[in-house]
Amino acid sequence: MAAAAAAGPSPGSGPGDSPEGPEGEAPERRRKAHGMLYYGLSEGEAAGRPAGPDPLDPTDLNGAHFDPEVYLDKLRRECPLAQLMDSETDMVRQIRALDSDMQTLVYENYNKFISATGVHALLRKLQFLFELPSRLTKCVELGAYGQAVRYQGRAQAVLQQYQHLPSFRAIQDDCQVITARLAQQLRQRFREGGSGAPEQAECVELLLALGEPAEELCEEFLAHARGRLEKELRSLEAELGPSPPAPDVLEFTDRGGSGFVGGLCQVAAAYQELFAAQGPAGAEKLAAFARELGSRYFALVERRLAQEQGGGDNSLLVRALDRFHRRLRAPGALLAAAGLADAATEIVERVARERLGHHLQGLRAAFLGCLTDVRQALAAPRVAGKEGPGLAELLANVASSILSHIKASLAAVHLFTAKEVSFSNKPYFRGEFCSQGVREGLIVGFIRSMCQTAQSFCDSPGEKGGATPPALLLLLSRLCLDYETATISYILTLTDEQFLVQDQFPVTPVSTLCAEARETARRLLTHYVKVQGLVISQMLRKSVETRDWLSTLEPRNVRAVMKRVVEDTTAIDVQVGLLYEEGVRKAQSSDSSKRTFSVYSSSRQQGRYAPSYTPSAPMDTNLLSNIQKLFSERIDVFSPVEFNKVSVLTGIIKISLKTLLECVRLRTFGRFGLQQVQVDCHFLQLYLWRFVADEELVHLLLDEVVASAALRCPDPVPMEPSVVEVICERG
């Protein structure tokens, strides 16, 4: 063909023939060119001629190894500019012609393309169906169960549709045998339970895809899940046993959260994904499953939390509760019907209440410990040259210690309401915990408990005021008074600032609590007066009851018991002055310290008693009794005690002198006995008047004592006032 073209036109060709042949051959050549273009052949290759240039030549435009850069470099080196421009124009023309030929080829063969594509897809499907048994067998052998199920799922509908055809029926029978063996292996793998929850869920999913009964698989799935979760529970329970040391509460909750709670979440998520078609019945079955196992887990957690009894630091406990509560959010959301989240919140709230009670007991124990320290300090023997702590220092120590314990308890329970804690935004911790738990239960409860404990010392039985040291009563009364004036308000303000109350529960007003503290302080101080008055009264009573007043000798000095009374009263005055202010006294008379006490010491007293004490005059006993009764009725021995030193000493002296008066009324006195009473009373008057609010009170009571002794004396001859003064000054 190439030789014919080179030899020129063949013989017999007409003058109108072109070198390419007659005009009728042009369309044919174009169709051949299109065909060659479609199959990627050049015209020469299609005609069997040699392919032309070297196929490895990088400058061959049609070659497989064409390199544009090399081709352009060659053109720039070998061709002038005009030839380059002609080459560009020719190349553009060729590209356009090629695009036109390609478009024409596509238009002419579109239907053929479409038909070929549909036939190819159908052939591929048929090929897949015929190869399906072998593919399934291979997947089962390799353990690619998921791929095998997917193959079966793709072909199942087609095989079912064309099962009436023998060839398709044979393929379906082979596949059913293989899938039955596959289902058996999946069930065996599922029942062994050696794999984890995700693998077992995959087995169930594949079995469901193979058409296995969903109800049966649901029961088996929950049964296997129960076995795994119960194993986690047994592991946690073993940690609570007596033999191995229990891990700290944070580590315990971490293990429970990652083991049991994490496993429960996996089971719930897989169940809901696999058995969603079960409807409400299936959901309730899962909820009951989770509720049962969750209650057992909660019981173990509460057992471990119950072991956290010691210490006042709640940081580790709160962190453990936070993680416990936080880990149960996921199963709580997945299993809302099981109520796991609510149950976890209830456990946290219950632990918080228990910790409040624990801190309340701690505050009570701290207060009792402070009282024990005070008792020991008061009972400690005094070492020569070394002064022990005074009452003011002891009071300051007790107040500081209690306040520091209160602040420490507030800081400890405040951890339950920290913002970073997952349960702090719950309604209980925003409201009831703050108001009723911390404020009322802990702080108000402790203050009232402190007042009740202090008041219990007022009820101590026994002689001489029982086993309670009077100084302790005095210290407690001042402590309660300080709480009434400042401390209660400070503590409650501090509590309200730290725990912002957001509920409407009623709370105890500050004024009510202050009134209770003030009443406690009043009772303690009143009891202190009674105890100290009783101590002095016992001395006076014994001194009167153990003496033979009818046969006593003429007095030459003041009895020692009266000196002891003055000494003890002075000591009490010093003791009370350490904690209480002086108080207010009435204006003193100018001769109070010089007044000689006797029945003749003043014109008033002479007018009262001189006629009766004159030996030659008969004694009007009825008159003296009426006067004595009149004065006695004017004195209220147990009048309310005010919070100052003068009021306290006045109450003690009234009790003491009233006791002396009652004892004198039960005795009979001789002349010298009456004179001894006269000397003793004068001595007491010299010193006791300065301790009381009204010196007339001392004068009145001592007048009654001497008058009562005179009434019970057969020979009432008083001692000369000058002699009484000498004896008292000497004594």
Automatic annotation (TrEMBL):
One of its GO terms (cellular component) is EARP complex. Residues 1-37 are annotated as: Disordered. It comes from the Eukaryota. InterPro entries: Cullin_repeat-like_dom_sf (IPR016159), EXOC2/Sec5_N_dom (IPR039481), Vps51 (IPR014812). Residues 1-19 have a biased composition (Low complexity). SUPFAM superfamilies: Cullin repeat-like. It is found in: Golgi apparatus, trans-Golgi network; Recycling endosome. GO terms for biological process: endocytic recycling; Golgi organization; Golgi vesicle transport; lipid transport; lysosomal transport; protein transport; retrograde transport, endosome to Golgi. Residues 122-236 form the Exocyst complex component EXOC2/Sec5 N-terminal domain. Its main location: Golgi. Pfam families: Sec5, VPS51_Exo84_N. Keywords: Coiled coil, Endosome, Golgi apparatus, Lipid transport, Protein transport, Transport. Component of the Golgi-associated retrograde protein (GARP) complex. Component of the endosome-associated retrograde protein (EARP) complex. Involved in retrograde transport from early and late endosomes to the late Golgi. The GARP complex is required for the maintenance of protein retrieval from endosomes to the TGN, acid hydrolase sorting, lysosome function, endosomal cholesterol traffic and autophagy. Acts as component of the EARP complex that is involved in endocytic recycling. Belongs to the VPS51 family. This is Vacuolar protein sorting-associated protein 51 homolog. It comes from Pongo abelii (Sumatran orangutan).
